[in-house]
Amino acid sequence: MATLYLIEQNTILRKSGDRLLLCQKPPVNRYTPGVRQDDILVEWPCNDIDHVMVFGNVQITTQTLHQLLEKGIETALFTLHGELLGQVTPPMGKNIFLRIRQFEKFQNRTFKTDFAQKVVHAKVSNALHMLRAHAKNNPHILEEKELLELPAALEKINECGDPASLVGLEGSTAASYFKILAKLLPPAWQFAGRSKRPPRDPANAVLSFGYTLVASELASLLDGAGFDPCLGYFHEPDYGRPSLALDLMEPFRHPLVDRLMLTLFNLRILDQPDFKAMPRGGIYLTESGKRKFIEHYEKMLGSYQDDLPQENDQPKYRAAFQQQVAHLAKCIKDEESFTPFRLDRKENK
């Protein structure tokens, strides 16, 4: 099963039988109804698709939406720049009892604090793991002593008695982390800290785009399992924000999206034509930039499967997404203690 990314502008997604057709828009002066063969840009068997992500000016016919919903395929709609607008979701989340337990746990201060501490600890540990690997391979760029603030933050996590205090610690640690991360890029692509809404430089444009894709996929998995993606335990609820998806995403940010960002710039896969400055401010990926990002992002994600790879394998992130959602369901029902995704899995033992 695959995720379908539609980024070709001024196109229409149609259906023909059990196939999805991405077509160019017909000329306005054509009076012949229906789809001609030369209109079709690419087509896919519907049964090979499990998610559709639509960016910008791509139309979807009503008949196609019916087909996607009948097949249980979620469609996520994004702006051209990658901001999530919303999702068209099949009615899969029928596990009302899980959702009741989810809301009950939200009222449990002890559960929320323990969950939040573990999420932040895993996030910082994964950041440290990734940076130490770069320091080992590139000692002329980054020295171990520059990373001291991250282990210090790990020591302070258990001292934070509520999610609000953890947010402050996580924010200050993230600011230090991004200063270090910027040094790992070629000089032309280095950036002065994290910026979003809008991203002020190409590196932040890549990070924002990647985080949005991960959050959307996790929200879809949570919804399909019966969770309310908007009720989290570390991120406070806010109107329209998928807080639980953001909770689960935290440990994946640095090893998945940040690592991919470094690869794309250091290997010169992304270049200046892959970015565009907008009149109202902000730097965003162009269509070519999105294509390059998605190509390499999909290679890192892998496919859904039953088990995570063995310890010596590279993480297959879609399998890890799937496992984390299933694991969280057991934790909500008090069948297991929550363990977030960790790069160094030996630390989980």
Describe the structure.
With 349 residues, the protein is an alpha/beta fold. It folds into two domains: 2-88, CRISPR-associated endonuclease Cas1, N-terminal domain (Ribosomal Protein L15, Chain: K, domain 2), CATH 3.100.10; 96-348, CRISPR-associated endonuclease Cas1, C-terminal domain (Four Helix Bundle (Hemerythrin (Met), subunit A), Up-down Bundle), CATH 1.20.120. 45% of the residues lie in helices and 14% in strands. It has nine helices and ten strands. A four-stranded mixed beta sheet has the order 1-5-7-8, sandwiched between helices. Strands 4-3-2-6 form a four-stranded mixed beta sheet. The protein has a two-stranded antiparallel sheet with strand order 9-10. Strand 2 (11-16) and strand 3 form a beta hairpin. The protein is globular. Residues 306-312 have low confidence and may be disordered.
Unreliable spans: 306-312
Rounded to the nearest angstrom, the radius of gyration is 21 Å
Mean pLDDT: 87
How would you sum up the major sheet? Answer: 4 strands, mixed
Percent strand equals 5-15%
Cα distance, first to last residue?
32 Å
CATH superfamily of the largest domain: CRISPR-associated endonuclease Cas1, C-terminal domain
Oligomer: single chain
- The strands making up the biggest β-sheet line up spatially as 1-5-7-8
CATH topology of the largest domain: Four Helix Bundle (Hemerythrin (Met), subunit A)
User: How many helix segments?
Assistant: 9
Structural class: alpha/beta
Helix content: 40-55%
SS elements, strand count: 10
CATH hierarchy: architecture of the largest domain: Up-down Bundle
Order of helical and strand elements: EEEEEEHEEHHHHHHEEHH
